[in-house]
Amino acid sequence: MTSMKITRRTFLKVSGATAAGTIMGGLGFDLSPAEVYAQELRIKGAKETTSICCYCSVGCGIIVHTDAKGKVINAEGDPDHPISEGALCAKGASSYQIAVNPHRLQKVLYRAPYSSTWKEVKWEWALEKIAANIKKSRDASFMEKNAAGQVVNRTNGIASVGSAAMDNEECWLYSKMLRALGLIYVEHQARI
Amino acid sequence: MADKSFFIDTTKCTACRGCQIACKQWNKNPGTKTLQQGNHQNPADLSASTFKLVRFNEVEVPGGEPQWFFFPDQCRHCMSPPCKEVADEKAKGAIIHDEKTGAVIFNPKVKIKPGDFKEVREACPYDIPRISGAGIMAKCTMCFDRINEGMLPACVKTCPTGAMNFGDRKEILEKANKRLEEVKGTYKDAMLANTDDVRVIFLIVDDPKKYHKFAVADNTIGITRKMALKRLFQPLTSLRHMIG
Amino acid sequence: MTNHYIDFRNADVILNMGSNVAENHPVSFKWIQAAKDKGALFIHVDPRFTRTSTKADIFVRLRSGTDIAFLGGMIKYLIDNNMYDEFYVKNYTNASFIVNPKYGFNDGLFSGYDSTKRSYDKSTWALEKDEQGIPKRDMTLQDPRCVFQLLKNHYSRYALDKVSQITGTPTADLEKVYKAYGSTYAPDKAGTVLYAMGWTQHTVGVQNIRTMAIIQDLLGNMGIAGGGINALRGESNVQGSTDAGLLYHIWPAYLPTPRSPWATLADYNKNNTPVSKDPRSVNWWKNRPKYVASFLKSMFGEKATKENDFGYAWMPKLEPGQDASWLNLFDEMYKGAFTGFFAWGMNPACSSAHAGKVRQALTKLDWMVNVNVFDSETGSFWKGPGMNPKKIKTEVFQLPCAAFLEKEGSISNSGRWMQWRYKAANPPGVALPDGDIIYELFKKVRALYEKDKGTLPEPILNLKWDYETGGHFDIHKVAKEINGYDLTTGKLMANFVGLKDDGTTSCGNWLYSASYTEAGNMAARRKKTDPTGLGLYPEWSWCWPLNRRIIYNRASVDLDGKPRDPKRPLLKWDAEGKKWIGDVPDNAVPPMGTTGAYPFIMKPDGVSSLFGPGLNDGPFPEHYEPLECPIEKNLMSGQRINPAIKVFEGGLDAFATCDPKYPFVCSTYRVTEHWQTGVLTRWLPWLIEAEPQMFCEISIELAKLRGIKNGDRVIVQTQRGKLEAVAIVTFRLKPFNVAGQTIHQIGIPWHFGWLHPKDGGESANLLTPTVGDPNTMIPESKAFMANVSKLTKQPAQPAKKTTKS
User: How many CB atoms lie within 10 A of CB B10?
Assistant: First the structure.
């Protein structure tokens, strides 16, 4: 009896039968899918925001859809974008999971010297403590003149790496701050 | 709405897997736990969480460079879906054939028993149907919600190279045949897979088995025998249904 | 990039070498496919058959680290077969220039080498000048001391057989590539090259690219549609972050950082402003003093005055020759030189070469600030493998920042397109955009210096830091600062042409001047007109400099300003209207045949450099083996490794060459589904599903040799460290025949790290060496020596994923 089931091997016969006529019946169309899913297009009426992908340097256009509460509900290619024309690779197509992801860092965390755990802290506290650290390290390591007596005005004791992950304006602002603090060890992804 | 079809041009697929992920993104299907098992295809197979899967297969060419076949697998949305024929007997309304587009849709509101599902899956020449733990069948929906609004299916829209195409069947057939002519000079074995029987037409340029075991429906049985089997089949399944 | 992504479609031949474009810049393959659809030939040259290779018309293998030999052979082939664009070579390159008679090259060393310093005195590489100070030329290219003859002579040594022995590429394959790519020497043919870290991450990284630049010059492929030298950069804004001067050696827009001997701004300008006495050379960098003064005005605002040198003295100065680049930075940190450290949007504990050393270096700090979207091996280094938190003093601040779609601002892609993006949603929890964090942090620092002056408070107290609206940080104000202002009117600069050195203009980054003008935010433009039909889209976003989409574009026309390639007219001179039509011209001077100037305006001599006397390791590229290599002798010369590289010694640094313990050449690389160290991809379920674990790709032959089966767990080990991986035994890797010796190549991705997922595996950079290119100090991560062996105790077989669901 089992040999009588429709199997992969008999598929073409089935379609052949349809081509030959409707003698078998039962192969017609029925309910529309809209009736079974009873679901509207989930992005209908959603707010659209254009963005540019954060991964490689092609610069593909992305449209992010957010619902009435401002939550990201969809992210897909921007068809108007002349480079990507709506396309996204595996990474770009995953953008939604950057926004909607329980692993995201959501708190300011502090790890004290010799501690084995993170502690949640407030922005204000963290920024003030970092600022105090900066001042302490800067003042302690600042070199106004080198051995030859030339003015160098640099902070030898602080280094920075980062970041191509920031926007242009943020990069510029960061560079400005670091140079004002006297850092010379300023590096980022472009070097590696 | 006119009859719809896909054309999947494997000669243009770079296996970027944009389609695989865009499908998950649109359907909000979860990422599943996988392991590296000695190749780049992952997940290993289609599932109730993976409707679209780029299959990778590497073939040695003695004395030359290897071949690496990419096959963006998905439901073919058959013209006459055998899965539906079985399902209609087992779980009425579990599979729907959309008149407007030709999309074959698994109804998430209808459960199916594991044994019956097995028959549905067996009926599919492309081994597409999958089932969730809750007994709901799942596969590609043709993004019917998108296409009803005039949008492209998520996998097609995201494809960078033109491997994935979608549109009115007539135009898609023209496009597929035109491309077939273009590549014939380079690939003597180029073919369109089961063009008349499915709404997802793959252009492949080598032995289908090199792409995927179920890339093309097996067509080794002569028409006469198939017709005979078909005739036998109908009353028996009805009988089983009554007994069952 | 000199060109841009869409421009790939204009090429007749595309050479992808030193990158894996289909996997790492997947959507750009759209434009390679578009070129192929029009009949273009796509060539891929790589040690490994990748997803890119599957689409190549010609795929050819070479041993990692031998690109100069491969391309040097092409230079010889092109010259021997007269396959070069003679007009272009004579008029637009320094082929005809005469070189100092003391210049020489012998057995792998250029003249002027000092072995004790491992460096060159470059004075003998200079070009000869006449009494007016203009370079001497021989337009017949026959003078034995002219660049063309020296080039021909230098590469005469790169014969097919020799190249084949070094690269492991069969001679027939070499010829196939040379002939195909060489076909673009015709003026109406365009050839483009796409490269990435496969060229830069070598101890001959810059010279790899130089070799290709020479080829592009010989073929007349620079400054044309469908041509150029195109770096596929690895990150969405690594172009912009470089432009912003986040590197030790440059301020924004490629102004060199000052050195201690340059006490005044005048000293700085004198030492950094090139001079050309040739009236035909535009020598654009002659404008440097205007850009520096305007930059300092953007730093210190009204506190920057003519009298105080615009605050020049407050800016930090390095010592002459001091190299504060990445590898040295972490070397210094390891030695305890720093108390404080920012790892801002970076994960050096996985991204740095010799990451094991970096992780140790982090324990030497007093404090570290780590800003990221997800937790990383850097932020959590103190609880990583082998670390005992109770013994680690480093105080760590982990600050949560907004992801790209949760803030507004611009980024610059590899094609120099500056694209504005908008905020779609709020960041989660208390996360803030990086800009807000920087802005608020500096205000805190300033408050401390206001309260207690501390050491040299002036640069801090005088810094112009007024980028807020309604009490909140305002990114648009920074964007405008970058564009610059005419301080006499308070209006935004229209572009950098109007910048001055007298303090009446300010500009944060002269290359970006014209991006945000009185007419609005140019980066946000979305108009899709394409007047040239070449896909330049001049009104979509904005590109630096001056919205010029293809740089050096005047090299595409003849001396009368007519397009040399009538099929792809990028620019043409309208003699009646006295203007250029097409792309924004690379300087709007008239054609060279009239009163015009040379097209390569950023070069002091106005022409492209076949002979490059400015680099640290020679004016012509020369093949040297990687620091760690599998063969005892460099077949080209007596110098096995690049004579100008810095070798780090002692501490944790160790290297192995021709050591039977580490017999295989190893490269690190990326896959489509992950990005960099994986901080932005490993936490995404869809991506980690697609590429879940560390792997090591090896050939069938090597698998047999080591008794490894596909899917086995293996140990990959170098002098620096070891890690576990899953073996992918593949036909796509093959051993090389290098001068009769069988050399195996293996490869590993660098996306993983111990933090997440738990079974994902460790960072490939635990294995890579601390050694860099002598010009850029980019680490040699593409060719080092490793061993691979089967893990003796295989873990319990993971449950085979069922095909049923």
Answer: 20
